[in-house]
């Protein structure tokens, strides 16, 4: 699964964009979005997704269940 940003809760602070190791977050129409094709849930980079760690509003960066869970190369997750 990838993460997604709840647009109605996003304050557009841009903290997440700079912290994403996959450059999966970008600004779109005044709010930030996560490209699910680039999001790896920070697996292999950090213990917790960095968008979740830095977002000042709880439950704004959440799992997007419409995408399959990310599989790290070699099967490590």
From TrEMBL:
Cofactor: [4Fe-4S] cluster
Domain 4Fe-4S ferredoxin-type: 1-30
Family matches, as Pfam families: Fer4_10 (PF13237)
UniProt entry keywords in alphabetical sequence: 4Fe-4S, Electron transport, Iron, Iron-sulfur, Metal-binding, Transport
InterPro entries, alphabetized: 4Fe4S_Fe-S-bd, 4Fe4S_Fe_S_CS
Listed GO MF terms: 4 iron, 4 sulfur cluster binding; metal ion binding
Protein name per UniProt: 4Fe-4S dicluster domain-containing protein
Native species: Methylocystis heyeri
